[in-house]
Amino acid sequence: GGILIGGQGETCSCVAFHYPIFLTGRDNGEITYFNLQSKIRKVLQAHVDGILSLFYHYEDFHNIYLLSSGRDNKIYVWKQASMELEPDPVKAAFYQIQELDHPDYVTSIQYNRINRQIFGSTSEGEIVIWATMGLDNVLYGQKVNIGAHVAEILTMCVTTGYIITGAADNVARVFNMNGRRTANLTGHHSPV
Questions:
Q1: What is the pLDDT of residue 131?
Q2: CA nearest 42: which of 28, 22, 20?
Q3: How far is Cα 174 from Cα 192, in angstroms, rounded to an integer?
Q4: 154 and 166 in contact (C-beta within 8 Å)?
């Protein structure tokens, strides 16, 4: 038999994984944390509306972060509580350290450790980039908006040198880290 990680009755809208931690985002704004080794399960009420994206970032044993974005137009940066405290069922798995607002909801969220930037794709077809000094210190006001698509961005991948997006406008695009479009992948007959 399998292991029930999320709750029943709510749709799992996104997942994040870094062994042994498995996380699910749900339509009711909850994040479910599950440790596959210890079998500890915790639920965090993270957003007031559905969660659209999770990104788990492991820097080292003492610096483990989670980014979440939701339909409430919020992006939260969470830091994992001490691993020594994890078995305590009262302690939260993560605590919030940053909150970012955006006028549209962010459909996908990622962090690039090399450039120290948070990348968000939006329901309005934009890519938003926040400069940081690390996930403990997001620099507000240093957002760069890239008008990437004419419809909602459905998926985004950030690599060392590129940002790749797919959207409801049936186009996949590749951008360099300066936001300059380097490729259009057209001809799709449905959203990418």
A1: 79
A2: 22
A3: 13
A4: yes
As to burial, measured by CB atoms within 10 angstroms (0-12 exposed, 13-18 middle, 19+ buried), residue 79 is middle
Number of H helices, E strands in the chain: 0, 16
In angstroms, the CA 118 to CA 115 distance is: 9
Measured in whole angstroms, the distance separating CA 85 from the mean position of its chain's CA atoms is 25
The residue type at 165 = T
Beta bridge partners of 72: none
Does the pTM surpass 0.85? The reply is no
Query: Can you read off the two tokens belonging to residue 22?
Result: 């498995």
Neighbouring residues of 140: CB distance < 8 A, sequence distance ≥ 6: 100, 130
How many residues comprise the chain? 192
Q: What is the 3-state secondary structure (H, E, C) of 12-74?
A: EEEEEEECCEEEEEECCCEEEEEECCCCCEEEEECCCCCEEEEEEEEEECCEEEEEEEECCCE
Residue whose entry in the numeric block shows the structure tokens 């985004």: 156
Nearest CA-CA partner of 99 in 122, 80, 118: 118
- CA gap 141, 165 in Å, rounded: 24
| 158 residue type, one letter | V
Residue with tokens 């007959």: 189
Which pLDDT tens digit goes with each residue over 98-113?
A: 888 777 888 999 998 8
